[in-house]
Amino acid sequence: MVYRNSVILYSLSCFLVLRCAAYSDPDLNRNFEELITSRGFKCEIHEITTTDGYILGYYRIVNPATISKPELRKRPVLLHHGLLSSGVDFIINSPGGDYDPSILDETFNGVDVDGQEKFIKHTVNSSQTKEVGNNLGFVLANLGYDVWLGNSRGTTYSKKHTHYDVKDKRFWKFSTDEMIKYDIPAGIDYILHATGRESLAYVGHSQVAQFVEIKGLFHLIAKIPGILEFGKHMKGQLLPRSSIIETIGKTVCVSPLKFVCTDLIFLVCGFDRLQMNVTREPVYTAHDPSGTSWRNVYHYGQMVKAKKWQMFDYGFFENELHYGTPHPPEYPLAAIRSNYIALIYGENDLIATPKNVASIKSHLTVPLLDDYLVPYSKWNHIDFLWGLEAGKHVYARTIQNIKLFDSHK
User: Is 233 exposed, middle or buried (0-12, 13-18, 19+ CB in 10 A)?
Assistant: First the structure.
């Protein structure tokens, strides 16, 4: 019986490997930099040190036309990822997105607004160029924006520190609080200094949702008795990018068992088979998950339980030391004064649910630049990055909002 089972497992593994050999996607084995340069853009890698010692890897997409004609370069745009993700997710949705020198020539020289509007409309809606519109980083770079792809501490591209090694548990003693306090400000200050600009556009996905409500797999896990107490005692990193996950992606995700990969994503993010490009799943799993700290996920668990967008809860006595109060303070969303906030969300998103978005809006005291529910009932959390029609449903709107921001600044 043991021999027979071994033969079955061996046959299955051989079958999966053969299926993998038949799979061909030039992006599969490309790293972050190669994904950018393969499209004809230039890539710059910047290391940004935060005030608490973390060294963040930022990737800059440079449109070659702006090198010889820097006056064509528009304002900086920082694209920032969510939990367990990285900046690379803004450029791996689909093939294509190549540098097009005609976009910033004399016809599209940054003055002909009508010409650029036609390009945007054609790019994100035409079936011939749909791939271009589905990679936000490349679309913006083609339009002349100075695109920067950020990476939070602990992700694949930000695993350096001035004092701690990643094997040191002190390296992983952070949550979203430190990303808000140190990472984002360091990235913005660095970009503004490097470009000589006074402002930039920031586009963020996930990791900003207020957890008044959460559905799907995370909701079920949160219901397990003692799960939060278990998470409290976990240390170090969680779900880093690994060769094991990458191998599974290159085998299982292109085999007859590929539905397993798809359904795991749907359990977390929401079901939407029509928008999932299953042929690209091996590319996605080659880069995701990108890792974070156990403490960061535990922090999310705290917010789910408390139903508040609050800072990390250290416990009664430590909270007194950190905050001067026995309970962690909530983030003061009412203190936000910007009039250039756009919220784009999906009805089928199990993480940033419409109820969560409504809660955020209820705390804001400023008018929104845009309040947009994607007009597609099945639009889920990951469709914003990997949806087959992300260009049509989300990126066209995103570009319009950036242009509105441009017109006021």
Answer: exposed
Q: Which long-range contacts link 70-73 to residues 24+ away (Cβ below 8 Å)?
A: 71/110, 72/104, 72/109, 72/110, 72/144, 73/144, 73/145, 73/146
Mapped onto helix, strand or coil, the DSSP state of residue 276 is strand
Distance (Å) of CA 136 to CA 96, 98, 123, 167, 334: 11, 12, 11, 34, 30
Q: How many CB atoms lie under 10 A from the CB of residue 386? A: 23
State the CB neighbour count (10 A cutoff) for residue 245.
16
pLDDT in tens, 8-21: 333 333 333 434 44
Question: Residue 145, class by beta-carbon neighbours within 10 Å (0-12 exposed, 13-18 middle, 19+ buried)?
Answer: buried
Radius of gyration in angstroms for the set of CA atoms belonging to the chain, rounded to a whole number: 22
The count of residues in the chain is 409
Global pTM value: 0.85
Q: pLDDT (tens digit, 9 = 90+) per residue, 91-114?
A: 999 988 899 888 776 434 443 444
pLDDT per residue as tens digits for the range 171-211: 999 999 999 999 999 999 999 999 999 999 999 998 755 44
Q: Which two tokens stand for residue 228?
A: 């939060």
What pLDDT, on a 0 to 100 scale, did the predictor assign at position 3? 38
What is the spatial distance between Cα 309 and Cα 330, in angstroms, rounded to a whole number? 6
Residue 389 has pLDDT above 70, yes or no: yes
Q: Which amino acid is at 156?
A: T
| Tokens representing residue 75 in the block | 């304002």
What are the phi and psi torsion angles at 370 (to 5°)?
-155, 140
Name which of 92, 152, 127 is nearest 279 in CA terms.
92
Where does residue 84 fall: left (phi above 0), alpha (psi -120 to 50 degrees), or beta otherwise?
A: left
pLDDT of 122 higher than 60: no
Measured CA to CA in angstroms, residue 373 lies from 356, 393, 395 at distances of 13, 10, 13
DSSP 330: B
Q: Residue 391: CB partners within 8 Å, gap ≥ 6?
A: 123, 124, 125, 130, 132, 133, 134, 139
- Residue 44, SS3? strand
Tokens of 268: 């977390």
Mean pLDDT value across residues 137-151: 95
Report the candidate in 183, 181, 180 with the shortest Cα–Cα distance to residue 153.
183
